[in-house]
Amino acid sequence: MFSKLTRKVNHSLADPTSPPHAGQQGVNQTLTCLALPAPDCVRRGVFPMHGETCPLPASLARHVMDAGQVLFPPTMPAFGARHAMPEPALRAPGMGTWAGQSLKDLSPADLARWIADAGFAPPGGESRTAHLHRVARWLETLSPTPARVTVVADATVVRAITVAALGGTAAMLSRLDIAPLTRTCLTRHATWRVAVSGAPLP
Which of 27, 28, 47, 101 is the Cys-Cys partner for 187 at CB 3.0 to 4.6 Å? Predict the structure, then answer.
């Protein structure tokens, strides 16, 4: 969530302008995940308040118009894309009593544990492990139709979707670099594959 506190690894898996390789021909479904810009408070080192989500910026709007279905967290302001509907599972991790607090005001020991232990949850909040399980359950039950689905959500949610698609654990979340205002593309043909990860949006 905060680049200074987590070790990031560049995880771009493909050039988004290149054609799909042979293994991607005839895929049943494409899931495009668009990462929203980070709230202003995050840039100041403050955890977002409950339900604080950026509206869909104009730079993302054109990427959702052709999707058969567009899914977004219910905390996000509605937008005019056709077939758009809120999905509760796409909420960012709940920060409990840490919501709205500055990093410098938190206990250094608790903050260090939160960074190091994916199973640790802020008081009244949600651990990264619990968040990943929530997103993984949603991905497992995602209908195979329509063929093109777009998710618009916080970068932490896109990261969790990608790890869940790969069958990974919460330990992988801090090793996957998916920034705000990027595009991640998954394809499904029997199993999920990651075609593009964290590609900057034009």
Answer: 27
What class is the 22-93+134-200 domain? alpha beta
What is 45-104 written as a DSSP string?
TBPPPTT------HHHHTTTTT-SEEEE-TTSPP---TTEEE-GGGPPPP-GGGTT-BGG
CA distances from 60 to 39, 57, 77, 154 (A): 15, 6, 14, 13
Q: How far is CA 31 from CA 47, 81, 157, 188, in A?
A: 28, 16, 13, 8
CB atoms within 10 A of CB 98: 22
Q: Are 21 and 202 in contact (CB under 8 A)?
A: no
Sorted by where each begins, the domain ranges of the chain are 22-93+134-200
H or E segment and range at residue 109: helix 108-116
- The tens digit of pLDDT for each residue in 48-93 reads 988 777 767 777 778 888 889 999 999 887 776 778 899 999 999 9
